[in-house]
Amino acid sequence: MLLSGPNFLVLIWTFAVNFPQISGGPVNVEIVSLLPYDFGMGTALVRTGSAFALAVEEANKRYAPYLNMSLRLMYNATDRNCEEVAGQAIRTLSEYYYRKTDPESVYAIIVSQCFDVTGTQSVGSEWDWLMFANGASADDFVDKEKSPTGMATGGTFRSYAEFTLRLCIFHRWSHITVLLQTKAFSNFYSEVADSLFRAAAEYSGRYHFDVNLNMFDLVDESMIAALNHVKYRSRVIVILGPGATCLRMLLLAERAEGLTNGEYVFIVIQPQQQGFYGKASGFNNPNTTNLAAFRSFLYVTFKSPSGAVVTDLNLKLVRQAKALYNVTYAAGIQPLDGFSVMASYDIVDLLAVTVNETAATRVRGSGWSGRHLAERMSNRNFSLTVGEMYVNEEGARTLNLDVFAFNTTTNSMQVVNLWNPSDNGPSVNWATNTGRPPLDVPKCGFSGEDGDCAQQRRASLRTLILSVILGAGTPAIIVLLLLWAFGQYGAGLENVQLLNSEELSTQPLPSTIL
Fold first, then answer.
1. Is 38 exposed, middle or buried (0-12, 13-18, 19+ CB in 10 A)?
2. Where are the alpha helices (DSSP H) in 64-187?
């Protein structure tokens, strides 16, 4: 009875909306990876390939027989630099496009940091294929005029920059000095520095930022010089370099006079807590008795996902990484702690959800548009396997970021809630006399001689001059009086008669002689 009449029609309609492919066979979804096999990149296949493979396997189980997802890897294991990767992949991809593609299938490219953004954009735009990045992307990648099909699932450099600027606005800091390490192992730091300047400029009219840059080499002299550069420019220092560099910079702050007086804020930005990027725990138990710099230290980084589902997924990824790439994770390190691994899994999840939704309204035989799929993915929230994800109107994922601060009781780093410090959770133990965040501009200015201090300095100078005059002037006055007296005495001698000894006893002294 329940399957007759209107109820039956409702059931058919519901089934068709959720799994519309059943009437015409499965939709083929092919993910084409241009990622290198290895050579140090966090997005390389030896680190992220297991996430792609596992996500495709799980998606096929979930949507079978309505979606047929596959992964095609275009790499050469012997490639050891970006020039080799880019040249080989473009040739292979072009050949594949012209010989083996099907207009009724969905195609998505996983781009590599080895590729020039302009070249990748032209491919995606011309072929109308989706393009995904599983690492942090530059602004151009999600510029819809240049890259209408680009999806920054690994977030953007700009997202780290904007988060940092929001921290500064919240604390009313506007003067910022960026200390950038030269020749760092990753371009993350220089890209974030560039994004900081761009984003700060766009606040013009709403909030005035004064951002300056100083680059340093990895030697003590250069690092101390960079720290000294800060004193006359700002009290907020953003250090961009690997974790070990940032720790070394904090320890060297003691040797730059005045930087550990509690007036300065040190902000470190890392994309994840793995490898050379370091971990927040690397700043625990610092080898110093002066903790002022550490108490004024904020560590911004990717927030690792958590929960029972994530725990289970991490176990599967560990096994997959070992089986496919012979990669073993160290104790305490989980695959999804890396934002590139998480982004790789999410790309497959996101694509499967969107294709399944889109198939409900698509006319079979009309082909699949990467632009249309990108539009459906943008400016909305998704509930994926790893967790909630928001993709903004530009197609960039909004990364969840944590802020760590130093706990003086445990001598270790802990996650803090900067946005609502009145909560019962951990807060920053600022090193200022008031226990509040440092001022953007000190009371006496950056030079130490501005504002009220300038008047105090002038008053002190007048007092000093007067005391010098008084202190040094008393002997001078005595000398002047003596000289005057002798002058008067000399004038009186002109009227004095010279007396011999005999007369001296009988003649009075001239009255002019005192």
1. middle
2. 82-100, 117-127, 157-170
Determine the Cα–Cα distance for residues 187 and 261; give it in Å rounded to an integer. Answer: 33
Task: Identify which of 160, 123, 120 has the alpha carbon closest to the alpha carbon of residue 141.
Answer: 120
Residue 397 neighbours by CB distance under 10 Å = 28
Can you give the three-state secondary structure of 64-75, one letter per residue?
Answer: CCCEEEEEEECC
E strands, 317-457, where? 380-383, 388-391, 401-407, 412-415
Q: Measured between alpha carbons, how far is 181 from 241 in angstroms, rounded to an integer?
A: 5
Q: Give the tens place of pLDDT for each residue, 324-342.
A: 999 999 888 899 999 999 9
Q: Are 50 and 320 in contact (CB under 8 A)?
A: yes
In DSSP terms, 412 is beta-bridged to 407
φ and ψ at residue 350, rounded to 5 degrees: -60, -45
- Report strand pairing: 130-132 vs 106-110: parallel
Residue count of the chain: 514
Cα 200 to Cα 218: distance, rounded to the nearest angstrom: 27
From residue 439, alpha-carbon distances to 160, 253, 432 in Å are 23, 19, 9
CA dihedral of residues 130, 345, 42, 244 (deg, nearest 10): 130
Q: What is the mean pLDDT of the chain?
A: 84
* Least confident range of 36-45, 341-350, 434-443: 36-45
pLDDT above 90 coverage of the chain, percent: 57
- Cβ neighbours of residue 303 under 8 Å, at least 6 residues apart? 399, 400, 401, 402
Task: Name the phi and psi angles at 70, rounded to 5.
Answer: -145, 160
CA distance 409 to 392: 40
What are the residue ranges of helices labelled H in 41-81? 45-63
pLDDT at 123 over 90: no
CB proximity list for 21: less than 8 A, separation 6 or greater: 27, 66, 67, 356, 359
239 φ/ψ angles, rounded to the nearest 5 degrees: -100, 120
Pairwise CA distance, residues 445 & 151, whole Å = 45
| pLDDT interval class at 402 (50, 70, 90) | very high
Q: Does residue 508 surpass a pLDDT of 50?
A: no
pLDDT of residue 425: 66
How many Å apart are CA 179 and CA 306, to the nearest integer? 33
b/e per residue, 355-377, with b = 16+ CB within 10 A? bbbbbeebeeeeebbbebbbbbb
